[in-house]
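Data card: per-record layout.
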Amino acid sequence: MQKQKDPPTTSSSNFSFQKKVWTTAAIFAFLIIMLLLINATFNVLLLILAGSLIAVFFRALSSIIQRKTKWKEGICVAISIISTLLIVAALFWLIGAKVQVQIIELMDTLPKTIDKAKAWVNESSMGQKIYDQIFSEKSIDKAQLFLPGFFQSTFGVLGDVYVVLFIGIFFTISPQTYTKGFVQIIPLQGQQKAQQVLDTLGEQLRKWLKGKLFSMLVVFILTAIGLAIIGMPLWLVLALLAGLISFIPNFGPLLALIPAVLVALMQSPQTALLVAGLYILIQFIESNFITTVIQKKLINMPPALILIAQLFMGALTGAWGLVLATPVMLIIIVLVQELYIKNRNKDPEPSPAKE
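The structure for this 355-residue chain is written out next.
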């Protein structure tokens, strides 16, 4: 007579269930730790991105020099870094004194201009309501809570500039060291794809930065010419401010418009209207012609998507997030295209079922 087999115990299934629970808990814990780490260090990552953009500029300039002169790469890189720093220093030295005088005049002018604008606004009941709403105690309290966090920096303003500049120089001198090091931590089967993604990112960032610098130069020249024709005081510093702040899409032109209109109000309301019209015209030209030409050479970045990224990153990380929202969005789009969309399109379509 055969012995009956013992019923299977549940110990193995319990162990398997516990293992799944602990594995799931470990994955969630890892994700939470990574999110907390990214949240705590995101400003540092933005500084690294800013340094990378500077390195992209230096490398692009050195490649142009090397293409024209056929000199060694190291010599061209050194020329690109040193010449850029010397040109920036020379510009500050040549126009620094004049700009400094105009900035002092601007600081002296703004309080009087604000008082004059306040009196001008208070002449109408609608203007009075708008002024009361903007400068109400509740609005001021909200601004006092928001602005310190928005304009705070990771290491202080000079510290941030120092970190960004030297990261850019180090990345410029030996980019292969950092890219190869990053690729080496990727599993072997994915290293070729990782290198391809890095190359695509570098190419897209180089094209975007070249177009953005050209756009900033055009905005500066047009603003300087327009303000000089109108006869605006402080035209040089206002044009420089407009050119530099145009690096920030959407919000940059508005930020540049405010001091220009306040200074123009010291002349007359008509001058203020002329200045506002000039800035709007330049923004129209930049958005509809210059940016359109630049975007043809780049991947498609919807303007609404850039605006949403600026709102989120500006609220979470402050000024650095607002400034670098566009390259961050560019990086995200490239990663999605290279790692997901292209792989999805390569997947073979399922064959029809046989009857």
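Known properties of this structure: The chain is about 85% helix and 0% strand. The two ends are 50 Å apart (CA to CA).

See the next section for split statistics.
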